Structures are given as C-alpha cells and as structure tokens.
Amino acid sequence: MKKILLPTIISLLITLFPYNSAHAQSANLENLSAVVNTLEINASAEMDVTFKLPFNASPVRRTDYIQLILTNFKNVSEPAYIEGTYAGTPSYIITGSTVKITGISMVPGAQITIRGIPVENPAVDEYWTIVVQITEDEAGTIIKNERIINVTLFEGAISVTAIIETPQAQLNISGETGPTTYVTFTELGAVTGTDISGLDGHFGKIFTGLEPTTHQISFYGTDPNHLTTSPINISVYTAAFAETSITNQLLSPTIMLNQSVYSDGADIIASGSAVPNGDITLITQAPLRSYSTTVDSEGNWSYTITNTEEYVPGDYQIHALVQSSGGLTSLHSPSLGFTINSTIGSIGTACGEISNGDINCDDLVDLTDFSILMYYWGTSNAIADINVDSRVDITDFSIMMYWWGT
Fold first, then answer.
1. Domain end: 303, 323, 341, which one?
2. Residue 26 domain flag
C-alpha cells in the first residue's frame, strides 16, 4: 500500500468531516481495526471492523447507532453477523457507503467485531480510510464516540459457513447507581462479574454461556469513598438458546455520617452518593422522622439535620433511599446507628428520697415527675436517677411506673 501524503489526508478529512455535527464524546474507541481480505483496486472484498468501548465511555444503548462510514468503498452491503459482548438484536441500515447498526447495547469495556461486510474496494490506492462513530441519532448529529482508521489486509477468508449453537443461555443485567461506582455481581457467594458505572450512573453486565437453570444472583455497588449500597437479590431462570434481560435496577444510595455520637442540639450531617439528579429521602428512627434532598449531577448528596434538640437522648438508626428521574425507587441504604447524648451532664442533686419515683418530692408520683425523667433521660444526673446507678434509663422509668399515682 502506498504511503498516504499529508495533503491528501487533510483534503480527505475536510471532505468527509465538515464538523457540522454536535460532539458529546466521552472517550475514543479502543482496539480499533479494519481489515479486508484483498487490497486489489476495485475488487470485491469482505471487511471486518473491531472496536472496544472504553471503561470511561458512556454505554451504547439500543437506540444509539454504530456507524461505519466507508466513504471510498462502493456496493456496501449488510454484515454477515456481529460477535463479541453485546445485548439485543442488531438492525442494519445501509445508506450509500455507510453501515448503520442499531438495536444493540454495549457496556463500557465491551468489544465487538462486525464480520463479513461486503464491499467494493476504492478506485484509488490511497483512499483506504474509514470512520467508526457511535451516535445518538441516525443522522449522526450527536456523536458520542468517533475514530478514524486505515484499512489493512487480512490474510485469510472472512466468510462463515456455519454457526454451531450449544444449549446455553445469556443474561443481561443493567441499571443505575452513582457515577464511577464499582458494581460486584455474585452467585452463591462467589464473584461472577464486575462493572464500573459510567458518568451517568449506568451500569450493565452480560453473562454468556450460562446453564439453563434458575440462578440466585446478588449485586451491589462500592462508590469512590468505599461506601457500599444495599445488595439487590434476584432469582431468575435463564432459558437455553435465549437472551434474558433484567433492566431498570436502581441501587440504593450510599450513606455516611460526620460522626456517630452527638450532643443534643448538634447538627447531624449525612452524605453519600446515588444516581445523578435523583431525589433522596432520609429517614431516622425511632420514632420515625424523614427529610428530603436532591442528588447533584455528579451523584453526590448531603443533608444536615438541625433539629436534634427534638431528639430525646438515646440511640437511633438512619438510612436513605433514592428515586430516579425516571421514577424508579431504590431499596433502603445500609442503616447506620448514632447516639444523642444530653448536654445536661451529671451535675445535680436529688430533692430528697426519690426511690419511689417522686422526683420533685411533692408526695405524688405523677406527670410532673415523668416530664422531669424525660428531660434528664440518657444522662447521669442525680436529679432523676431513681435507682442511683448513674444512668437515667428504662430502669428508672419502670420504678416510676410501679409507684405511679401514689
């Protein structure tokens, strides 16, 4: 093959790519190659095109288009088949010398080869350049990924004489979580696969060669701060010679607290990650209290609980759930425990003999004594420590109830 001159390349690129498309590229395609079984001018040939979707790229959705722009080739026809890691059934559209493929999805890190594209080679020995694009529309106005490559010679045939199928199944699992979250898939306690969600929070995994049986699968995410989501557990039967898809799986938010012990009145700051632009519901209990906030476009959320003076000193649990912009609702996040301590402290002296629950020494155990007990609940203040064990707690309450009304 003759060396392509720089002016020729520049002229060719200007002709092919006038930059009238909107570029929304997330990453360049990797492992790109294009081969034909002959480099003879004007000869009929078969072409293979291979590429890998980078791990930091957006996934290919079934509504997207893989476009092979073979400008200098003629009589371009549909490929024989596609092999590699993808889901869906490909649909081919031939527009002039462009092959458009839609109806399939690919997760970041997946690689495919488009086999056996019938073509007629260029009439000029220098025009062997093709373009591979992934676009959001058939017209190619919104380009997600794009790369240019020179076609080279493959020594051998590219035709397929037979496809031998085995009684195996394929399972596709996809969903959403926080961006760049490491998603782990397990079955019966063993890790069966992993994925890293894209910047939009989308993740997916394709399992091939599965036995046609019922599978018990669990998957969860670990965000960049090493916080984990709650696992999603599914039971699914995968039929032989069939593709089973489980979609719209929304992983829970991750959650952390700025500390685990608070003085009453102190702010509680909860934060974590979740699907971008989702709505967070934050829940503490018991009793049940709920708060709302939103997830930013980068998948981060935070909320400050400022009304902790309403919390009686004691132990509590907190968790969160998220609703995506598409209306999906997640499971609850892992639950965290926290403690509210009273700032009253241990200073104080009982009014007298309070062993019968008469905390205010008015010779009647009633609602006034109960109110005082609740005020000092969780502290070691002697004013309400009926059994003198340096802790105002359920034992003191039980003694008061025994003597109630006396």
1. 341
2. yes
